[in-house]
């Protein structure tokens, strides 16, 4: 067990660092928020209002203060400096708000990582000198991804910046907007209707044109190159056989050996190349849709983690804190802390840590690496002092 943990120490370290980062941006530590910068929401309710009402409505309008009491809305109109405002931890609709927020973040992170994977494929093409793949695979793949899902990410940011508390009720659904974009319909517009309709039609047309760009051009270019190569080989062989080329016997023999070597090269099969390209094109185009949806597992994992953390706090730790103060309360807190800590480590750290690791591993292997990794290059050899010493000993 220790050897497994030690071998994965860097992965565990990176997972811990990223867990701390996500906890900070979601402002969620054991289901509680940290009020570092002070909430940017204010209360204009009296003490009687707070005591006599179990729930109160916070108005997201502008918060105003006069000589007597605050008036207007409850929001300072300035965002919390980093992460989620801690007031959301007390709200009854925090799940609705955070779900929407985390879903959008998952899509943005997913599209960025997939785009990064496609960019890495360009380095592979340049390294192996497969420049034809840059023009007929890499470029249309980038255009296809940006025209559809890059545009979706832009709409997410546009919606965040455009709509405020007063106009959010009329904000269109991004999912419906994306569906209408493919159906060439317009239900609600995020910006100027005429510009949006023209842009979305252009984006869809360009994305559709990228499919035959990826599918047809490369196989026919390869066939044309192969036909020219075959013609050159036939012309050279015919010239050698007819004795049209006067050269020493040694050079003629070398030409014949080169000709026989070319004959033993792998034969070009246009049908096989076309089928392979068709599979690759279909896999990429459909994969852009399914892979983007697959990144929503980040939202699902975050939702499950926050709910489990909230249950452990509500059902275990809060019971100890509700005990009257004094020696009895201190002893009760000390006793209940043990099962709370055990369940936190066993469920949130071990079980959920393993689950998060497996999901992250799947996202890297399937959604990310299929954009550039084919397994047909060189065998990976990790850096090892043991291997280096063994090689040195073998040389000596």
Detail the topology: elements first, then pairings.
Blueprint: H1 2-7, H2 9-25, H3 47-52, E1 63-65, E2 70-72, H4 94-127, H5 131-162, H6 174-183, H7 193-215, H8 217-242, H9 249-263, H10 270-294, H11 297-321, H12 327-368, H13 385-395
Antiparallel strand pairs: 1-2
Helix pairs in contact: 4-5, 4-10, 4-11, 5-7, 5-10, 8-9, 8-10, 11-12
The assigned structural class equals: mainly alpha
The oligomerization state is single chain
Total helices: the number is 13
Task: Trace the largest sheet across and list its strands.
Answer: 1-2
**Stretches where pLDDT falls below 50 for ≥5 residues?**
249-257, 259-264
Shape assignment: flat
Rounded average pLDDT: 83
Strand-and-helix sequence, N→C? HHHEEHHHHHHHHHH
Count the E strands. 2
Beta percentage is under 5%
Q: Radius of gyration, Cα only, in angstroms?
A: 31 Å
Please report the distance between the alpha carbons of the first and last residues: 37 Å
Please outline the major beta sheet: 2 strands, antiparallel
Q: What is the share of helical residues?
A: 55-70%
Sum this structure up briefly.
This protein has 396 residues and is mainly α.
Q: What does this entry look like structurally?
A:
Strands 1-2 form a two-stranded antiparallel sheet. Helix content is 69%, strand content 2%. The protein is built from 13 helices and 2 strands. Helix 5 (131-162) packs antiparallel against helix 7 (193-215). With 396 residues, the protein is mostly helical.
């Amino acid at each position: 067990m220790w050897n497994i943990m030690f071998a994965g120490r860097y992965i565990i370290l990176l997972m811990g660092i990223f867990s701390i980062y996500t906890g900070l941006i979601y402002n969620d530590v054991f289901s509680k928020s940290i009020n570092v910068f002070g909430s940017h929401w204010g209360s204009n309710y009296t003490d009687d209002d707070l005591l006599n009402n179990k729930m109160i409505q916070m108005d997201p309008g502008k918060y105003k203060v006069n000589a007597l009491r605050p008036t207007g809305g409850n929001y300072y109109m300035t965002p919390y400096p980093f992460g989620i405002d801690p007031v959301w931890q007390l709200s009854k609709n925090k799940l609705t708000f955070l779900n929407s927020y985390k879903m959008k973040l998952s899509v943005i992170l997913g599209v960025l990582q997939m785009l990064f994977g496609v960019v890495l494929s360009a380095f592979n093409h340049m390294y192996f000198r497969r420049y034809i793949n840059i023009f007929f695979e890499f470029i249309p793949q980038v255009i296809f991804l940006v025209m559809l899902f890059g545009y979706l990410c832009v709409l997410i940011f546009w919606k965040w910046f455009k709509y405020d508390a007063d106009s959010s009720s009329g904000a269109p659904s991004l999912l419906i907007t994306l569906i209408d974009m493919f159906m060439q319909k317009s239900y609600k517009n995020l910006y100027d209707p005429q510009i949006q309709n023209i842009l979305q039609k252009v984006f869809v047309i360009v994305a559709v044109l990228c499919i035959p760009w990826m599918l047809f051009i490369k196989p026919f270019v390869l066939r044309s190159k192969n036909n020219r190569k075959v013609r050159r080989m036939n012309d050279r062989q015919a010239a050698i056989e007819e004795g049209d080329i006067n050269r020493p016997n040694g050079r003629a023999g070398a030409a014949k050996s080169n000709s026989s070597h070319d004959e033993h090269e792998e034969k070009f099969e246009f049908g096989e190349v076309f089928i392979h390209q068709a599979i690759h094109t279909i896999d990429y185009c459909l994969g852009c849709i399914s892979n983007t949806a697959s990144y929503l597992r980040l939202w699902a994992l975050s939702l499950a983690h926050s709910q489990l953390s909230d249950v452990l706090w509500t059902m275990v730790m809060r019971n100890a804190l509700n005990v009257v103060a004094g020696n009895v309360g201190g002893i009760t807190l000390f006793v209940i802390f043990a099962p709370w800590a055990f369940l936190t480590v066993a469920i949130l750290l071990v079980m959920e840590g393993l689950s998060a690791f497996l999901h992250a591993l799947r996202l890297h292997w399937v959604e990310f690496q299929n954009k550039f990794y084919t397994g047909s290059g060189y065998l990976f050899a990790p850096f090892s002092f043991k291997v280096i010493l063994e090689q040195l000993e073998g040389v000596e």
